[in-house]
């Protein structure tokens, strides 16, 4: 698995909330919410590249949005994007909304709450999304109880625990995203080191997507899956 080291956190003054920079934007952090990692910028850059190749307004969904880092970075880089961001817990949703206001992007990014896509049921987005992005938890439960236990000292389990094999959320994401993507829309998500083979199998077995490609980090390790929903026949 990746080291999952957080990017540098700064505190401006004793009364200020801690902040981080992610893809050029400054985000407030809060206890109980995952601190964005540098490796997730690979997913953000991949998403921006996909959107910049589109014409007109683009509809984007950010699942497991955490602090809102991906949703807000995408909205800042692609002004024509309308972004819906979703997460499960009160703390993450509240922080993502504060960050949208902080970045002046509340008009472009709507933050909702729910278990994966359940928070979007009343948004009328089924079959309309140009892009779904997600940075889901991808460390196995066993590793979190062993050599990766230190991750849980300051950040929430739900941000890391990917189930017995680290891919439980990925399985749901691949299946459920298809209902929201338009034909030819894109699914892009992060995964852990060494999980590319299993991810490829998940996408192939789902039957909704064209053959996936992978974006690699600076070391040449695949870390982001990019798959296009098949066109309607």
Automatic annotation (TrEMBL):
It catalyses: L-glutaminyl-[peptide chain release factor] + S-adenosyl-L-methionine = N(5)-methyl-L-glutaminyl-[peptide chain release factor] + S-adenosyl-L-homocysteine + H(+). It holds the Pfam family MTS. GO terms for biological process: methylation. The keyword S-adenosyl-L-methionine applies. Keywords: Methyltransferase, S-adenosyl-L-methionine, Transferase. InterPro entries: DNA_methylase_N6_adenine_CS, HemK-like, N5-glutamine_MTase, SAM-dependent_MTases_sf, Small_mtfrase_dom. GO terms for molecular function: methyltransferase activity. Residues 58-142 form the Methyltransferase small domain. The keyword Transferase applies. Its EC number is 2.1.1.297. This is peptide chain release factor N(5)-glutamine methyltransferase.
């Amino acid at each position: 698995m990746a080291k999952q080291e957080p990017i540098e956190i700064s505190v401006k003054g004793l009364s200020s909330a801690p902040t981080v920079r992610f893809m050029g934007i400054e985000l407030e952090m809060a206890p109980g919410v995952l601190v964005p990692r540098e490796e997730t910028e690979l997913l953000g850059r991949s998403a921006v590249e996909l959107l910049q190749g589109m014409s007109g307004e683009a509809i984007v969904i950010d699942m497991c949005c955490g602090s809102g880092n991906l949703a807000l970075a995408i909205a800042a880089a692609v002004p024509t994007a309308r972004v819906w961001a979703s997460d499960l817990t009160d703390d993450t949703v509240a922080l993502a909304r504060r960050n949208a206001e902080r970045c002046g992007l509340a008009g472009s990014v709507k933050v909702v709450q729910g278990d994966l896509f359940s928070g979007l049921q009343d948004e009328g987005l089924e079959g309309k999304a140009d892009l779904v992005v997600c940075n889901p938890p991808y460390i196995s439960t066993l590793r979190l109880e062993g050599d990766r236990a230190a991750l849980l000292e300051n950040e929430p389990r739900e941000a890391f625990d990917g189930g017995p094999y680290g891919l439980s959320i990925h399985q749901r994401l691949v299946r459920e995203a298809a209902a929201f993507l338009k034909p030819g829309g894109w699914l892009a998500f992060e995964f852990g080191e060494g999980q590319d083979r299993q991810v490829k199998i998940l996408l192939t077995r789902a039957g909704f997507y064209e053959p996936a490609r992978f974006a690699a980090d600076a070391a040449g390790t695949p870390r982001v899956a990019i798959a296009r929903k098949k066109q309607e026949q």
